[in-house]
Amino acid sequence: MRLRHKPWAKEYMEAQEHVFIQHPEQLKGNWSTEFGNDHPLFIEVGSGKGQFILGMAQQHPDVNFIAIELFESVAVSIVQKLVETPMPNVRVLTVDAKRLVDYFEAGEVDRVYLNFSDPWPKTRHAKRRLTYKTFLATYEAILPKAGEIHFKTDNRGLFEYSLQSMSQYGMFFTEISLDLHVNEPEDNIRTEYEERFSALGQPIYRMEAVFRPKN
């Protein structure tokens, strides 16, 4: 995806302090204080323009959500939508997923969503995939015991790689779908990419994976 640079994005987001968190490291271990409650905390790594996470937040007002998007020119779309339609249970971060342990304490995040991540198809780029073992270790570090990852993609190669990577890491799967929209759950929230690829007739792959508790 080619990103259109938006030089005004950073200044705009920084002005929305109630939505955009500039220094998330200062909230490590204290996200419940930021939200003003002890509701479960779900994060989406790679939120794009926010259709999924905002839909989830509307569907689940008793859950706190954090949208994590590396690129300011993309994340600003989420912030704009939250300004237009306020949702007190959503915050936005522009940080690198490699550094999640700098922003969340062990067990502070209750669930991680990975939706339509960059497949990085070349073998030499495998370490960049969000389901590579180092990323899995990062998610495990911020999730509770038996923490969950929910994953969706249109890319069969990435899906197969992720199943293998998670299995080798010691995770197990509680749900696997090779064509989610054949019997689409009523509560499924579609991402922008999901709608686009489904309209083209491409199957949507989905799984729920759980970390095995360590003794």
TrEMBL record:
CDD domains: AdoMet_MTases (cd02440). Its EC number is 2.1.1.33. It catalyses: guanosine(46) in tRNA + S-adenosyl-L-methionine = N(7)-methylguanosine(46) in tRNA + S-adenosyl-L-homocysteine. Pathway: tRNA modification; N(7)-methylguanine-tRNA biosynthesis. PROSITE patterns: SAM_MT_TRMB (PS51625). Catalyzes the formation of N(7)-methylguanine at position 46 (m7G46) in tRNA. This is tRNA (guanine-N(7)-)-methyltransferase. It comes from Exiguobacterium profundum.
